[in-house]
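Sequence and structure are kept together here, with a separate record for every protein. An example record follows, reproduced without changes.
>
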Amino acid sequence: MLMRDHQLAREFAKHAQKVRNIRRRAQNWRLLDCDEPTLVEMRHSLIEQMVALEGTLNAADSYFLHCIENSDPVATEDALQQLNRLTAAWQAQNAHLQEIDGAILERHLWTRLITLFRGRAGLYLFEAIILIAIVVVITITLIELLVPTLPPAVSSVFLQIDLGISLFLMFDFGLRWWLSEDRRWYWRRYWVDFVASLPLVSILRFGRLARLTRFARLLRLLRLGRAVRLFTYQFHWLDKLVRTFELKLLKRALIVAVVLLFAGAWAINMIEINTAAGMVDDTAAFSESLWWSFTTLLTGGFADLHNPETSFGRFITMLLVLLGFAITSIFTAALTSVLVGDGSSKLEQTQHQLERDMRTIQSQLDLMSKETNNGLLVLETVSQTLSNLPDTETLYTTLIATMLDHFEALQASVHLLNPNERALHLVASQGVARATPPHIVAMGNSFLGESAAILIDQNLREFDLEPFDAPCLPVRGVALACPLVADGKLLGFLHLVLPKHLGRYYLYNRAPMILAHHAALALTHLNELK
């Protein structure tokens, strides 16, 4: 015994890498890894759940209004809490539904692009060219920002390169928009790509309008988002990082911070810095303004760079400091909740889980009180019937029909053991075809064959017989294999599939096992008569 356990321990030690790979695969999984039919089925299933949830929500809303009309404060508070939970659940499911729907549209667009470029290799080459173009534009932008006094010839070359790449990126945006199944969805999701791809038109480079081109250069930095998305298709960990920063609270904080950063820089530049410093170079003035706005917004330490002298400048500073404190606090709290988890949300989830468990227990008690008596009556009646049937075909038909009619089985079948072939043969079946085992199941092969392999060499007179169970993925249920045993011999199995919510109930586990035992005895008796 000790030696065998030692061998098993050594074997399990070799499985460590396999377990790590399973965990890594689960952590890196994303919706886009699923094929389109799977995503469509997931969307349909979630829609059905949301329809049921909306029915529950409407009923809870009616009850809430009823409590208000009856001036019952305690019941009103309970109803309000229930409404809050249901609406939060609906919002979470709706967000997940939109995510699945977006993944379907992404997958559909990706399939069309692969078809257009005659394979994945062609599409990957096109994506690589886009990435290189974005890197070139970002490099040019950084050079123009860091070196404001570029020679006119170099600036002209940079402008021509920017125009060519912008037209190329506009073509890429238009192509994907045209191929998208839902063009409104594509525009809502990727409008930033369109804005970031706009070229610096020549009319903006004349006179005082030339300063707008310096501000517009910053729009090129938005193309970094496009570059990041190109990477996320290949590196799943980047996809998880992007999804972390797509949290509503975190995303809104970032957007507001960026808007305030540039708005504050523009306002203080127009009001004070450019005039007070006497700067001729607009780029240098705006760089100073941008740094002042960043420092003010993030730390409130504006005076080291520039202390506003005008009333409007001080008002702008006051707003930036106050809003900066709020944005920084929101961003820090949201990021902390993502990285270390929110204790209050965990407590709330635990409370909801306990409530769900209590409802499950109550439903089990109701099920036992309402259905146990009926189940016992059926069990007694069918047990007597099985003992008096004239032939094996009627025996199989009666047993299977009982499982479907009285014990909610989605599928039921009888498989007899052929000892010479060491295989199980299907002799009768009803119900869902895709959940039915094959006509011939080899010993040790699949769920039914593995169950038979466990019993085939056992002394069944001393073996504690229980139904074998396993998940049934084709119908999202529970498969049961009830051994047909008589005189200590394994004759075969009664195989059935129960809905998932019934598979764990005692009545729906033990009753098929008892009937399988009576059927085995009746089958032995009929074979002896032959």
The CA atoms of residues 21 and 100 lie 25 Å apart.
